[in-house]
Amino acid sequence: MKALVFHGPGQTSWQDVPDPAVKDAADAVVRVDAVTICGTDLHIVKGDVPEVAPGTVLGHEAVGEVVETGGEVRGVRPGDRVLVSCISACGRCGFCRENRYGQCRGGGGWVLGHLIDGTQAEYVRVPFADLSVHPLPAAVPGEDAVLLADIFPTAYEVGVLNGRVRPGDTVVVVGAGPIGLATVATAQLFTPGRIIAVDLAESRLEAARRMGADATVNAAEDPEALVRDLTDGLGADAVVEAVGVPEAFELCTRMVRPGGHVANVGVHGKPAALHLEDLWIKDVTITTGLVDTHSTPLLLRMTAAGRLPAGRELVTHRFELGQMSEAYDVFSRAADTGALKVVLGGPRHDEVRAA
């Protein structure tokens, strides 16, 4: 089969690799019908995630059809259309028993495209299939479903739930890329008083307004002043960092109110300063986290019911599976291309939806 293989920082290739096969009784092999690229994949290619060994097939989000299962798999069978979660869960360790699948110590957690071969391929082996793939309702198109493999549960769990968003809150989302936009969408489930989106790209701020942000501000135009003005100088109740650079994290800590929450979602490749000389007295809670995907069944039901925007708002570019290099190029130059999410698989559409 063909797959996108990581060969070291800055080096990938779409090449022939052996077909995956069931290795353990809990495995499933899935034919990939739709796959997407994550900002974390870009971090891997840059060399920010040194645990990824050269020779690894990248990718951790996919929709496809089960073609083979191990003897212990009970939840799916060949022929089933499924969502492949970005997190694999053994279901037995202490963390899995607490629904903290991202911290699995039984061989799961974030392994696809990280510690084992991933989804940016024609086929993928998924460990612990009963907890790591989700049967798809017929009402959910693949383009919508693939966004529930990572960005929507990440935004909801690591951003909104960790940020303790409550009715009436002022919520600031720093970074209006795919995760930030999914945060804007899922924060509305808790009826905050206002949502403010911060980004450097006007196209992404426009997308944030479409997703429901009440106010937007360019990161170069003093977002701190806007937050002060809108909160009578107090600061935001919840601030979500969805970029992964030191400047964005430090900006978040300056915009949060006393007693508020900073939820870091971004993947950081460099150290960020924690200004405890300012924060120690403010009773601020700062959370980090890898998504657990415990919310995926809930988000799937909401998508089937039309309660989440998913692909119709977030997918801007579409490619055939074999155009992986082109898709990476477009996604990595989002400031120039207007890319939010790219989806590979199915027929090629040359038209690009406005970002």
Automatic annotation (TrEMBL):
Annotated ranges, domain Enoyl reductase (ER): 8-344
CDD domains recorded: FDH_like_ADH2
Highest taxon listed in the record's lineage: Bacteria
Assigned keywords, A-Z: Metal-binding, Oxidoreductase, Zinc
Residues spanning the signal sequence: none
Cofactors that this protein relies on: Zn(2+)
UniProt-listed Pfam families: ADH_N (PF08240), ADH_zinc_N (PF00107)
Similarity comment: Belongs to the zinc-containing alcohol dehydrogenase family.
Protein name: Zinc-dependent alcohol dehydrogenase family protein
Organism: Streptomyces zhihengii
